[in-house]
Specification:
The chain has ten helices and 18 strands. It is an alpha/beta fold. The strands form four sheets. It has a seven-stranded parallel sheet with strand order 1-18-15-14-2-3-4. The radius of gyration is 21 Å and the shape is globular.
């Protein structure tokens, strides 16, 4: 199988993305930490993608977002990108999760806790906002099934855990019914997990332990562990909750998205490529900032991996994360000159960075093919 493909310990560090363009005909791109930060596009990313398109490179976006693919694609324009740039479309973990729920939890049966035969979900999700529409995800799960997913108000009512987000425990379908006359959400119906920003397990652990005791399976729409948010904030993601439920509570978890090689292969299928899942796939590279999701997944899928330094591992490496302008990120220099170094950026020689990276990669036992500061062609 593809996860038995050999892994090389050698990698090449580049000062920009430019040298990689002639090496591949197809690029699979991660979103958060590579193209944008959830609010704005990152410096140089849009230009790089447009140049790749002009050079007739085939591209697809492969994302661990919990949003359905069609919803995530519509957001691309916000970052200055057109859907037509990506011939392989956008493959999201949320889409794969919705398909699983449609197949396994929609259709009603006598084993349901609901009187009408609908399955009930203990629903961890996001707050309703311009960026997130949990109800849109739930209705997408139900689409074409002729059934509904009811929302449990307690663990006892639930048939399964739907881990869509890591911000709130939502105990209703209709958001309007949870809002008071003053426009404030009812805290008994929309319960703040205090997890996304604080990684507080108080509420989460109580619910998980009750669910594990009942033997509830969990379905996780986003396996990411952390995400880099604007202003340098680190967000704690659903993957942490899923891993805790499985490893500490002993629960059963179905996760979707990277590093599962199937999702990488889905992008190639969307592009009409023919390939052997048990062999190395030449001419294709995946660009991502997560060592454990992007690089591990690409290696298992038999494609080259391009590790982006300015994403979620930047802080761990002592580097400045890539921002939305040229006054942030990482510069790889021939020699250090503190007098010329700009505040807010990281300056390292190749030798210094390679030393840091060797330690990280050796400890993880994971090695990318290439390493770049960001998805940027450099000065332009």
């Amino acid at each position: 199988m593809s996860n038995n493909l050999p892994t090389t310990c050698a990698f090449t560090l580049h000062t920009s993305f430019s040298p990689l363009l002639p090496l591949y005909h197809t690029f699979l791109l991660d979103q958060f930490g590579v193209i944008h930060n959830g609010s704005e596009s990152l410096h140089g990313a849009v230009n790089c993608i447009e140049v790749m398109h002009q050079q007739h490179k085939q591209m697809a976006i492969l994302s661990n977002t919990s949003s359905p693919s069609h919803v995530a694609k519509k957001r691309l324009s916000k970052y200055g990108l057109q859907e037509g740039l990506f011939a392989g479309g956008l493959v999201s973990s949320g889409e794969e999760c919705a398909r699983h729920i449609r197949q396994h939890y929609c259709g009603g049966n006598n084993n349901s806790s609901s009187s009408d035969g609908n399955k009930k979900a203990l629903w961890f999700t996001w707050k309703e906002s311009e960026k997130q529409s949990p109800m849109q995800f739930l209705t997408h799960c139900e689409e074409g099934s002729g059934a509904m997913i009811d929302v449990a108000t307690s663990v006892d009512e639930a048939d399964f855990i739907l881990l869509h987000g890591s911000e709130v425990w939502r105990r209703c379908r209709d958001i309007e019914s949870s809002t008071s006359s003053s426009g404030q959400e009812d805290n008994d119906v929309i319960v703040d997990l205090k997890f996304l920003y604080d990684e507080d397990y108080t509420v989460v652990d109580k619910l998980l332990q009750e669910a594990a005791n009942k033997g509830l399976p969990m379905v996780c729409a986003n396996p990411d562990l952390i995400v880099g948010l604007p202003k340098g904030i680190e967000g704690h993601m659903p993957g942490k909750i899923a891993n805790r439920y499985e490893t500490i509570m002993g629960g059963t978890v179905h996760q979707f998205g990277k590093p599962n090689p199937r999702h990488f292969h889905s992008c190639l299928e969307n592009l009409g490529m023919e390939f052997d899942v048990n062999s190395k796939i030449d001419g294709v590279a995946h660009v991502g900032d997560s060592l454990h999701h992007d690089v591990v997944g690409a290696n298992a899928a038999g494609i080259d991996s391009i590790f982006v330094l300015g994403g979620i591992h930047a802080k761990e490496l002592g580097l400045s994360a890539t921002g939305c302008d040229e006054h942030s990120g990482i510069d790889i220099v021939d020699s250090r000159d503190p007098k010329r170094e700009e505040k807010g950026k990281s300056y390292f020689t190749k030798a210094e960075l390679i030393s840091k990276l060797n330690v990280m990669f050796d400890e993880a036992g994971v090695y990318p093919t290439h390493v770049v500061p960001s998805l940027s062609l450099g000065k332009y």
